[in-house]
Each structure stands twice: as C-alpha cells, then as structure tokens.
Amino acid sequence: MEEVPHDCPGADSAQAGRGTSCQGCPNQRLCASGAGATPDPAIEEIKEKMKTVKHKILVLSGKGGVGKSTFSAHLAHGLAEDENTQIALLDIDICGPSIPKIMGLEGEQVHQSGSGWSPVYVEDNLGVMSVGFLLSSPDDAVIWRGPKKNGMIKQFLRDVDWGEVDYLIVDTPPGTSDEHLSVVQYLAAARIDGAVIITTPQEVSLQDVRKEINFCRKVKLPIIGVVENMSGFICPKCKKESQIFPPTTGGAELMCQDLEVPLLGRVPLDPLIGKNCDKGQSFFIDAPDSPATLAYRSIIQRIQEFCDLRQSEEENLINS
Amino acid sequence: MAGPGQRPRRGRFLNTVVFRVPRIRCGRAWKPGRHQAHHPGPLRKRGRWEKHHLHGAGPGPAPCGQEGERPAPHWAEPQAATCIPAEAWRCPWPRLCPSLQVGILDVDLCGPSIPRMFGAQGRAVHQCDRGWAPVFLDREQSISLMSVGFLLEKPDEAVVWRGPKKNALIKQFVSDVAWGELDYLVVDTPPGTSDEHMATIEALRPYQPLGALVVTTPQAVSVGDVRRELTFCRKTGVRVMGVVENMSGFTCPHCTECTSVFSRGGGEELARLAGVPFLGSVPLDPELMRSLEEGHDFIREFPGSPTFAALTSIARKILDATPTYLP
C-alpha cells in the first residue's frame, strides 16, 4: 500500500475513502469501493501454512528493555533441548531485531527454495527467522512505517517454510502497536495458544504490562502468564541479595493477583545471562546451576503444561 | 510586555478562559475540544530572550513535588480495541540553572511513563485560547509535561493505534500544546525507528532541533540496536549530541563490590566507533529507581549518590555544548 495520510481513519473503518483526511490519498478510490473492508486473503493462506505448527506462543511486554528477546531465545533453547521437538523462533521486532545476535547467527542469510524462505538453523531442531538476516550491515536502520512492517510480518508468516514444528515462538517489539495487531490478525484463524508477558518488578514496567494484559483481553488472546525478570540480584562476592529494581507496588505477584493472571515465575539478574547473549550462546550451557537457569526451566515447564492442556481441551471439544 | 534582557511575565494563563480537555477515547483518533486554539504555533521563533533548545530522547529534569490532583471528567467510555524507564531519568538542569524552563514531551504513546515518574499521574490537560496547557509541576512553572498518559480515561487502558493515528497525535502535541517560553524541550521517545520517531522529527524540524541524545546499556545486544538508531539519526539529518551508557555497573550495598550486571564499556566503544561524543556512564542505583516509582525528587534526596554525580556531569556537558549547536 502506498503512503497514507497522517490521519488516515483506517482501511477497514466506516469512513474509509469518505473522510476529509482521505482527500488526495492515492488509495482513496480503493477504500471507497469497500476493498479495504474485505478480509485479507493472506489470513487463509497463513492458516493453511500454520497447520504444520502445533503450538504458537507470543512473547509480549509493555515496556522495552525488560528482557523479552532474551527470554524468547532461552525459551527456544530450553524447548529445543529435547531433540524430538522441532522449535521455530520468529522475530517480528522489525526496527530492533536482536534475535540474530542473541542466537549467535549474525551475518547469516536467508535462502529461498521452491517451498518458500528457509529459516536459519541454530541446531537441527531450532530454526530462526528475523529481519536482521535480510539487512546487509549491522548498522542498517529499518525506517519503515506501519503498513510496510505489516507486509513484512505477513511474508514471514506466509512465505517461510517452517516445516513440521512443535512450538513457534514469536518475539515481538515492546508496546501495543502495528506489529502486535498484525500478528494477532494474521494468526487469528490459525489459533494462538497464548501470550507470555515479561516485566520487571518496578511499577513503571507493571503499568505498561497492565495495558498489555488489557490488549490481550480485547483481542481475545489467551494469557499463559507473566514472567518477572531481573527480580533480585545475588552479589557474586558476598552472595547477599539486593533489589536493583525494587518492587515498590508489590511487584508482578500483586499485579497478577489483582488481574487474575498466573505468575509463571521470577528470574533473578545474573551477569552471565547478558554475557552469553552477547556471545550468542545459550546461558543454560554456561551456568547450568545458576538460580536463573532453574527459574527459566520451571517457567518453560509451566508453558509446556499450558500448551498441552489447551491441546487436549481442543481435542476433547472436537471429539465430543 | 517585558523589556530586553527581562524574562517575559509569568502567569500566562491569567485572564484566559480555561476549558478542560476531554479525555481520550481509545481506539479513535483524538480531536481537540470545541474550543479551538487561537495560536496553533506556540513554539515561536527565537527572540532575544526566548531560547528554544529542542532535544530528542534525552533525560528529563528533576520533579519538584506533587500538586493537588483535579478530578478527571468522565467524557466517554474508552473503547480500546532498551532500555527500560531509564531513558526518562531526571536531569538536574533546574538545580544547575534555576532560571531554566524545561518542557518534557512524552511521545511513547503505548507506554507513557513520564506522568508516573514525575508524580503527576491523574492530572488533567486543560485547554486555553492558545492551545492545550501542559501539566506544570511547580508554581514557578519551570517544568511542564505533556503525555498521552494525561489524556487516558483509565490508566490501564491500552493505546492500540496504528501508525497514522499516532502520527496525528504527535503532530498535535507539537503544534497544539501551548508550551510558551521554554529553554529546553526534551522529547522522550519509545525504542525503535518507526512512526513515532519519524512523526516527531517531521513535526519538530521547522523548529531546528538541537539534536538527539542516544541512550544505551553496555551490552553488545543493546549496542547492536543503538547502532541502527545512529543510522536513523544520520539518515533523517538529526545531529547526535552524544551517547549515554546507562545501567553501567551496580555497587552492592552490603559489600560495596561493583559488578558489571549488563557488561561494561559498550556505550563508550559505540561512541568512539561512530565518532560521536560520549557523555558519560550512569550506574544502576536502586534509590533512583525507587524515586522514579514514587515520583520523588532523586536529586534533592540523594545528592551524595554516584548516580547524581554522573547525571549532573552529563547535564553540565549538554548545557556547555548548547551554544555550539545553536544555528
């Protein structure tokens, strides 16, 4: 779609093509004819493509910098430890694609085959796709407005040949914007298992997580639970715990009680997590006994249990 | 009218009729109330005693305590269809130069944190004949704020808008808010290089922004994203005033051992490679976090903190460098 006016009412609104802000827009005739109101054919194509994907998990957060990409990557690593499970990690943070670096895949390229784009494989059972693989230099900035980002997300979902996948993990940018609306819209017919929301203990972060939870409820996206990241720091010298990000309003636990969503777990701050992400390695290999590793494993197990429960509920529904 | 060398008379909203700006209806583009602004361009061109230095993505000034909250009007039921809060940490500009007037514009529409960080949540935006009145923190009106957080009917409602609506609101924030005489306008942006950033730059371009402050944490993953931010600044013609490395080290309160929680040195290395000034490193400080959460004045309460020293040094560098950036 070409450049839209700044106060575009939206292609699927009642005012599409008829509002005063539509004057002069190159798409005015298209919108006025009602073409924008018809469902996107790509949604059906994506539904077909997603038939080979058993479970789809979105990783969301309200605030930036809370550790979403780190969590997505380690969720993928944790699930992929079972060699019989096929995992796919999709990074739809178009402006800030960190997944290639965290997975140690910087500089890799995407190849195209007859059946579509081929994801980049970290291991035999862990494939990754990100816009970072499509950029020629680590300095390249993706300065795109919403419609172009939506087009990219559509291509990721429709044109990538994921194959038979047990878990598709989608890492999103912070907030509740174009990318989130698009991924929920495109995967609407394909059924998302649920969303995991990451936060830190501070109220400033929780404030935005409440908005994120409201967003999930509005778009009828099930919430698997909330993960409290950077929750406490153990000093490597004296082994005493400090709260770098103090939970002044009760932290994620109180928020989860108030909003009736599960708290999946708390991950403490460990400097080794950051170091391993920078090196592109799995933190679980470097520090298998760290409290952070144990926290991650327990959270991953709860996510798996949720997905299995949903699957068995659906099967019961179909059979009854 | 004030003479040359004198500050213009304060109390610019005396003798004007003030109307409450209706709260935002999420899911729909917000339109101003029925009383239109008289002067749509409050950021007037520089006069002899009006200096407008515009910033992007920089630190915000210290708050001056809470004022009484006005009750929110119930206009309509809302229909909602990188670097963490640190990008809005306080800067002790008013302490260094008490006569400075600073405005903070929060264009993070999905995650507006500025109201909370200044203890101003629940405050309402009023409309006068010159436009929307920003929220003032103190009697002297030395710090003014504008954020979508002040326009939401309920604080937990999500702003789920696509690009064009966000662009429209940001344009209104710049053109319809009666900022008045400001020495600095600091714009807090969300992470990324997308609609909000492009809209802000387009709206501010006629006012010749001083430049952008880029904030990163020390890890390579964060620096990797910030490199793209620097490219964005270069492509859009925005000068980079400097790089700040935030969350650079944590000193354990029990044994005073300093640990690099998020690695160290990435910001300085990035500034060196990109050929932009490195303004300083700010350590992690739970007291700063607590102050931001509770809306307290960290600068007043913890002047002995190493974080205070780091913030003051960065503020001083910006103040000293400002004359060189003015056209």
From TrEMBL, chain A:
Sample GO molecular function, one term: ATP-dependent FeS chaperone activity
Example of a GO cellular component annotation carried by this entry: centrosome
Compartment(s): Cytoplasm; Nucleus
Pfam families in UniProt: ParA
Binding site for ATP: G62, K63, G64, G65, V66, G67, K68, S69
GO biological process, one term: intracellular iron ion homeostasis
Named cofactor requirement(s): [4Fe-4S] cluster
Cofactor binding comment, as recorded: Binds 4 [4Fe-4S] clusters per heterotetramer. Contains two stable clusters in the N-termini of NUBP1 and two labile, bridging clusters between subunits of the NUBP1-NUBP2 heterotetramer.
Residues that coordinate or bind [4Fe-4S] cluster 1: C8, C22, C25, C31
Record InterPro entries: Mrp-like_CS, Mrp/NBP35_ATP-bd, NUBP1/Nbp35, P-loop_NTPase, YlxH/NBP35
PROSITE patterns assigned to the protein according to its UniProt record, in alphabetical order: MRP
Major location category of this protein: cytoplasm
Annotated positions binding [4Fe-4S] cluster 2: C235, C238
Keyword Transcription regulation attributed: no
Keywords per UniProt: 4Fe-4S, ATP-binding, Cytoplasm, Iron, Iron-sulfur, Metal-binding, Nucleotide-binding
Protein function: Component of the cytosolic iron-sulfur (Fe/S) protein assembly (CIA) machinery. Required for maturation of extramitochondrial Fe-S proteins. The NUBP1-NUBP2 heterotetramer forms a Fe-S scaffold complex, mediating the de novo assembly of an Fe-S cluster and its transfer to target apoproteins. Implicated in the regulation of centrosome duplication. Negatively regulates cilium formation and structure.
Family classification: Belongs to the Mrp/NBP35 ATP-binding proteins family. NUBP1/NBP35 subfamily.
UniProt cross-references to PANTHER family, sorted A to Z: CYTOSOLIC FE-S CLUSTER ASSEMBLY FACTOR NUBP1, NUCLEOTIDE-BINDING PROTEIN NBP35 YEAST -RELATED
Subunit structure: Heterotetramer of 2 NUBP1 and 2 NUBP2 chains. Interacts with KIFC1.
Protein's UniProt name: Cytosolic Fe-S cluster assembly factor NUBP1
Organism placement in taxonomy: Eukaryota, Metazoa, Chordata, Craniata, Vertebrata
Gene that produces this protein: NUBP1
